[in-house]
Specification:
This protein is about 15% helix and about 40% strand. With about 625 residues, it is mainly beta. It has four domains: about 75-170, no CATH class; about 205-365, Methylamine Dehydrogenase, Chain H (7 Propeller); about 370-500, Thrombin, subunit H (Beta Barrel), CATH 2.40.10; about 510-630, Cupredoxins -  blue copper proteins (Immunoglobulin-like). Strands 8, 9, 10, 11, 12 and 16 form a six-stranded mixed β-sheet that branches. Strands 31, 32, 33, 35 and 38 form a five-stranded mixed β-sheet that branches. Strand 13 (about 235-245) and strand 14 (about 250-255) form a beta hairpin. The longest helix is centred in the first third of the chain and has 27 residues, at about 1-30.
Length: about 625
Amino acid sequence: MQDKDNNTELHNEVQNADRRRFMGKTALLGAGAVAAPMSAAMFASMAKAQASEAGKNSPFVHPGELDEYYGFWSGGHSGEVRILGIPSMRELMRIPVFNTDSATGWGITNESKRIKGDSAHLHAGDSHHPHMSMTDGRYNGKYVFINDKANTRVARIRCDVMKTDKMITIPNVQAIHGLRVQKVPYTKYVICNGEFEIPMDNNGKETLEDVSTYRSLFNVIDAEKMEVAFQVMVDGNLDNTDADYDGKYFASTCYNSEMGTNLGEMITNERDHVVVFSLARCEAALKAGKFKTYNGNNVPVLDGRKGSDLTRYIPVPKSPHGMNTSPSGKYFVANGKLSPTVSVIQIDKLDDLFNDKIKPRDTVVAEPELGLGPLHTAFDNKGNAYTTLFLDSQIAKWNVEDAIAHYQGKKVNYLRQKLDVHYQPGHNHTSAGETRDADGKWLISLCKFSKDRFLPVGPLRPENDQLIDISGDEMKLVHDGPTYAEPHDCMIVHRSKMKPNKLWTRTDPIFADTVAMAKKDGVTLETDNKVIREGNKVRVYMTSVAPNFGLTEFKVKLGDEVTVVVTNLDQVEDVTHGFCMTNHGVQMEVGPQATASVTFTANQPGVQWYYCNWFCHALHMEMRGRMLVEA
């Protein structure tokens, strides 16, 4: 069905593009010239040629043409998520999440503060792993989830409007790092790791130096409610995680089995672990009440330490980092970091492991040596894997089944190619490679350093996201993409999966509380422009239709708490309005058919102008009004 949709899209795009080119050529003939009409056969011939050319894996997307894929990038310590088009690598949008954004008013508006909840006072974040919700192991275009390592949060982005709609702070843990989603049968749960070990009752009353009381927790979040369903206590520090394609197991890399607190102590042991979690056993223990609670909250914490029925610890070389599931559903791959190897774990052996029929290391079916500093692995649809080698500044392409045969003692070369990247790659991602729809077209290498690849811009330099064509037998580097601090990870979804809205709907839950406030004030947002005063609290309701605000002036007293509510009545795509109150640090985006509000103190006497700060009309400069502040 997807192929049919893709072909229809391609045909329409080709036809439209060719008509644009034909009209352009006609215009060049000049006034009075007569152009020969295009016959149906000529159109068909051009479309066929264009389709043949489009069938090649080209990184070029010409003006007016659309990318085949959406890419969702974490913004790292910028705290945001970015949307890129692939293969053009054009940045399409930035979605503020854990940061404060002056363009949209995120972190300033009342709506965004409600969404940020108990962390609304935090203005920074460190977003790492964006991952989309799935149905039967395929992206469904509904949500993207993202973690904040800096402030131990997880947020959800609605893909119909590309806005953050939920955010929670995870209790009992510090520093949410690895995050993935349940793939099968659908994304009921979001899974994520609390990386840093802390005392379970972290109230400052215990002996803070007693490391024996420190624990790290695996966190399972209800994807729809955005509430923590349960947590699992483990030994060691959890790093990255992933899920299987059967809905049975989650797996996380786990370092610092020594429970050290400094570098030397953390890398003493030669082996650490992959911790595998049985979802069925965890849910059964939860139902049976086999949990404890800590720190005065009601989140159930299960005991998954070594020896538990809920988990199994598979020894792997020390300090493993990335955890990746092959799209075939057969293997978990743990990336060695300090070892030049990756460990391939056969998922269908896990039943026997949990039933104590085999030993943990019996699940490891290959440990190919790839190079120095393997961090993350991505996959194509031909049985090949692509692993970033941080120290070597390379991508290693290798065949999984050949690596297994080599591990069994057969003389086979599992390495297919090594490609230099620039420089020090961390995460990588193939097109739809974390789903059943992996198509083997593109690979992104997110490189931590750019060094000499771009014009110098001072001591702080951009990082480098490189696009690699993997559709043939050899990897080919086709694009360098400078990026600002710091895209940690990304994911790639075909555009056929995405159905973003063109306008807001008036019933959208993001501004439902503001609508309810207006109703309580007797205000109809779509028609009324009025001021409501309650003591020193003033609520100003106005509509906007380019190039006018419904109110061109309103009066308040110095020191009043002022809430301005703006409803954009325009029904034209891409006509976004803004509201900016000069000298008050207040501004916000108001999308077409949306309502947005902001609260501030009128702390400047006299005439204070407000204006539309998102260009919307030829008379945009005239779209303004006055707040008259009486001293």
